[in-house]
């Protein structure tokens, strides 16, 4: 990014007014000046406090007023001849300030005075032009006058006088309040660069005028103007302004300008971080958590933009931004600010899975979730979805957060949300809730207590109900299978799982996923490892559902149920698939079921199984290949695992044949001598790491 260096203007001192030319007083020496609307007793204002309208996004015409004592003094000093009044367009406008026609006549004379050699003349002309830019009719006349705004900019570029600069920037501010036409006139007159330079001026009022004018331009103009302002170094000039005392209205505009420049631009976000802006913004958030609404709203909007940047995200986590937001969410009455806080937390949460000290945040989020669910607000689904997503990420691989969620009745709160929204089919809300439950019921010391709560809350019937919903919301199905997998690992859940026909539900999910994969791969003609639907890999669904069935198949009664449901025939069909991931899942299930004699008989009776094994897993001597032989054939990474399961299957079938003398296979399937294969055991094992929930469509 190009960056223009900061300009610190060295303004000269104001010369003695008594030495100025008489033309400086030509239009100010009138007896009625003191009665006109211009020469009121309005004081000079040097701060932003009195000119920002916090009820409107665009700053209105209540900006700081210019110093007017010079004009009043001049007005009282000399009495002009009466015959000059009719010929003096400037004096006529002063007398009738709301008259656009008189303003139009006066503008050319005032613009000529801006290039006068006498500083007092220039200063007085600038004051009047500033006043003119604050009135609707005269402002329109000023905008419509050819080169009028350009003359203001030219004078601003050359003046070394603070008061003149203040009046000129004030006039540009007034013009910027005229939506579209005014802001476009400022852009066309190349006023952006001098306005950016004025952000480092040594007078607060000039800085206030400049930032407010630029803010109005940013709100009205498009991406090209934003790009120009970035190249002009506007961000570099604004970061120091974040230390601008306690003027919350001024800070609110600075923060909003940063948000407008950073939105959708990764380079701008990085510049803010490198210049220390991110830390200053978090400090402001900490100091303003219960104060000025507009500043707090703009701070959260800016942090929402920064929190999607990887580098800023980690910096925000390190700066304890999440702890600060935790204090705000339960006491925040503004729906907009609350939603912004949740979006920020949602964006940061996947980078904070290993961060300690967030237990209070977890508790606050669960309290908020219960509160929102009971209020049934207009945007309650959005807020609950964000909250559940944060909880899902924070409970991922973090034992302290899992324990905090369990202590705060997290299982009960989350299941209640799921139950309330099942009928409506709100999958975007149900999915993160299920993900959080999946994490709380696995991989930490209290997971058995969490699973006990699932049983006591009648969570298993609810899960099987979810497993029956059509059409499939695969994101919810994947999260659901993760919970079922956790429950299958605990024999205390077996009775309820069996009562709720979990095997039938799992088989239907497996069949649906397998069918969808075949449709998308032309029955395996396209050999792929990823088949995505709704951003979910259906291969993961096959693996998860098969794992659950495999764990259930350890029990004899479940083996008989699978046999009676003709699951074996379907598993053999999967085993024939050219897709290695599906073949691996099927082989593991067949190997497990083959331990049961009745199931083994059914497996042996499956048409084509013998020929398939001989063609794909046996060498020329009719023996099962070793891993070395299989690897030399260039098979997939899953091939060795598949061979292990096939070896187990063949060994068990051979054992049953030896005992009962009713062989159905004629080949000699001797196990290889060089390798011994054991079957993996799944009981009482912890499963792979939790997966962070990251749905598409946020910020």
UniProtKB/TrEMBL annotation:
Region spans: Disordered: 38-86
GO biological processes: cell adhesion
Residues passing through the membrane, by range: none
Single GO term (MF): cadherin binding
Comp. bias (Polar residues): 38-62
Gene3D superfamilies: Leucine-rich Repeat Variant (1.25.10.10)
InterPro entries: ARM-like (IPR011989), ARM-type_fold (IPR016024), Armadillo (IPR000225), Beta-catenin (IPR013284)
Amino acid composition bias (Low complexity), ranges on this chain: 63-78
Entry-linked PANTHER family: ARMADILLO SEGMENT POLARITY PROTEIN
Protein name from the UniProt record: Catenin beta-1
């Amino acid at each position: 990014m190009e960056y223009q260096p900061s300009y610190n203007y060295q303004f000269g001192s104001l010369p003695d007014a008594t030495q100025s030319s008489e033309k400086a007083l030509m239009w100010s020496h009138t007896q009625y000046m003191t009665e006109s609307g211009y020469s009121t007793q309005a004081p000079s204002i040097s701060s932003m406090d009195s000119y920002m309208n916090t009820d409107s996004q665009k700053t209105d015409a209540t900006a700081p007023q210019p110093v007017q004592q010079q004009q009043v003094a001049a007005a009282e000093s000399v009495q002009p001849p009466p015959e000059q009044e009719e010929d003096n367009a400037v004096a006529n406008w002063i007398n009738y300030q709301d008259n656009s026609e008189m303003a139009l006549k006066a503008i050319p004379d005032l613009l000529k005075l801006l290039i006068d050699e006498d500083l007092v003349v220039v200063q007085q002309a600038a004051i009047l032009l500033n006043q003119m830019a604050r009135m609707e009719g005269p402002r329109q006349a000023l905008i419509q006058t050819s080169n009028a705004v350009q003359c203001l900019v030219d004078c601003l570029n050359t003046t070394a006088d603070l008061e003149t600069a203040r009046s000129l920037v004030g006039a540009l501010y007034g013009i910027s309040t005229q939506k579209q036409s005014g802001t476009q006139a400022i852009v066309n007159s190349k006023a952006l660069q001098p306005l950016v330079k004025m952000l480092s001026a040594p007078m607060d009022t000039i800085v206030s005028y400049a930032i407010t004018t630029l803010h109005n331009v940013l709100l009205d103009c498009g991406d090209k103007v934003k790009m120009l302002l970035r190249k002009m170094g506007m961000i570099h000039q604004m970061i120091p302004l974040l230390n601008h005392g306690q003027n919350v209205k001024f800070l609110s505009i600075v923060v909003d300008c940063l948000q407008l420049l950073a939105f959708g631009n990764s380079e701008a976000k990085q510049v803010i971080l490198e210049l220390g802006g991110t830390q200053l913004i978090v400090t402001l958030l900490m100091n303003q958590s219960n104060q000025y609404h507009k500043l707090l709203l703009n701070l959260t909007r800016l942090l929402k933009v920064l929190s999607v940047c990887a580098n800023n995200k980690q910096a925000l986590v390190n700066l304890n931004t999440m702890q600060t937001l935790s204090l705000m969410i339960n006491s925040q009455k503004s729906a907009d600010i609350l939603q912004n806080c949740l979006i920020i937390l949602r964006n940061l949460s996947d980078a904070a899975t290993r961060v300690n000290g967030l237990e209070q945040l977890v508790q606050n989020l669960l309290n908020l979730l219960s509160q929102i669910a009971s209020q049934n607000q207009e945007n309650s689904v959005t807020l609950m979805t964000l909250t559940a997503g944060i909880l899902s990420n924070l409970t991922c691989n973090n034992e302290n957060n899992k324990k905090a969620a369990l202590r705060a009745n997290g299982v009960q709160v989350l299941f209640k949300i799921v139950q309330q929204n099942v009928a409506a089919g709100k999958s975007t809300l149900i999915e993160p809730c299920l993900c959080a439950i999946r994490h709380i019921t696995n991989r930490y010391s209290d997971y058995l207590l969490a699973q006990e709560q699932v049983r006591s809350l009648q969570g298993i019937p609810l899960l099987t109900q979810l497993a029956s919903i059509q059409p499939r919301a695969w994101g919810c199905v994947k999260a659901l299978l993760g919970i079922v997998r956790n429950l299958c690992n605990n024999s205390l859940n077996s009775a309820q799982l069996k009562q709720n026909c979990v095997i039938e539900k799992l088989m239907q999910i497996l069949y649906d996923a397998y069918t969808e994969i075949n449709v998308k791969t032309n029955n395996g003609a396209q050999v792929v490892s990823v088949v995505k639907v709704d951003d979910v890999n259906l291969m993961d669904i096959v693996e998860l559902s098969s794992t659950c069935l495999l764990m259930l198949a350890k029990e004899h009664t479940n083996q008989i149920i699978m046999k009676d449901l003709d699951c074996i025939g379907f598993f053999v069909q999967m085993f024939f698939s050219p897709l290695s991931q599906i073949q691996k899942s099927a082989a593991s299930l067949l190997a497990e079921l083959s331990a049961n004699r009745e199931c083994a008989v059914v497996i042996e009776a499956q048409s084509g199984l013998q020929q398939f094994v001989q063609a794909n897993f046996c060498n020329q001597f009719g023996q099962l290949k070793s891993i070395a032989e299989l690897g030399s054939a260039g098979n997939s990474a899953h091939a060795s695992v598949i061979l292990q399961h096939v070896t187990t299957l063949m060994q068990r079938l051979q054992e049953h044949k030896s005992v009962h003398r009713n062989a159905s296979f004629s080949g000699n399937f001797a196990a290889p001598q060089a390798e011994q294969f054991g079957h993996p055991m799944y009981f009482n094992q912890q499963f792979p790491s939790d997966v962070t929930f990251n749905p598409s469509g946020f910020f």
